[in-house]
Model the fold of this input.
Amino acid sequence: MRRTVVTGIGAVTPIGNTAPAYWEALTAGRSGIGPITHFELPPGYKATLAAELKGFDPLDYMDAKSARRSDPFTHYAIAAAAEAMDDSGLAGQIDPERFAVYTGSGIGGLKTITGECEKYYYKGARRVSPLFIPMLIPNMAAGILAIRYHALGSCLTNVTACATSSHTLGEAYRAIKHGYADAILAGGSEAAIEPVGVTGFLNMTALTTSGDPEAASLPFDRRRAGFVMGEGAGMLVLEEYEHAKARGAKIYAELAGYGTTCDAYHITAPNPDGNGPARAIKAALAETGRDEETSLYINAHGTGTPINDTTETLAIKLALGEERAQRTPISSSKSMIGHMLGAAGAVEAIAAILALRGGLLPPTIGLREPDPECDLDYIPLTARRQEVDMALSVSLGFGGHNVCLAFNKVDE
Done:
């Protein structure tokens, strides 16, 4: 089978608007969580915090007309993709018909939806933009990226809630592995810190109501009480190994395993038996062909919701066995970047790749009072120097979607 490697990365996150800035802040344990500024909070509003981008300007990546004609989730995708493509050096080095784009968004153009609905109800039907539909649909980021980079292969968009961009990476891996493409720009983006978006998650009791940025996103801590919404994008260039070698590309890691399952249990809650994510982790590990002595790092889904973290802990034990699970270092990037929804998987995969490549494992900040039911090595507070042979990135989404991606080191 053909091998799939990562040759470019790009990230726009609450702690940095490039992949190097994101990684530096992540390993330093800096949080991007603070008061919501994207909209004015009504009196008594219980969710006051979010992980917003800082200093992001779409005009750094497109002209003003293009920015007006696209939603912020597309702006973020374009920015992360530009970095990933520049990093990869792929432009001009790939047959356009063998180049594909796989992106996703959990929600899509929510700012556009709310803004145009307000126009309809308060100003009349004639004021609704003729670009309303192209701006809101989740596939528009993929379409625009395909146009920008002249990718004539498959152009797909995935929507599986919080597992979205892990699915785009996994399906891109399969497409390359089975010969349908030589390179794929894959990832996800999200821009849902809008009044109706935050309120929807708040009213289903998924969000923390903490007003303290340092005690809001608390994965695996006994004080955890919900997640913090984040925003941004992550994009990766996946490429067939021999194609990458032939052009002298820098190789970050090999995507060597992909597991995807469904709980088939509940529309939002994970099955507390942990079997669904455990099967995804097992499938990803089995596909790599590595043995049980291979040292691992896991970038966990780790949302900071009570049931997610206990279920994920159980799933890791079921997948690895108690002894291996206990000696595996694990952390949650969401302790710093919040939950980026459809972008989370790609951004967290980048963290897993860079941890594997550099031997520096990011921490779970805020983890000061471990939950006895979350009794694994969740790298509390500060980053850890530790070499590992493989990195896993786990994503779990509403609807019961479970994904695990397995990355190996590659000797260039």
The mean pLDDT is 97.
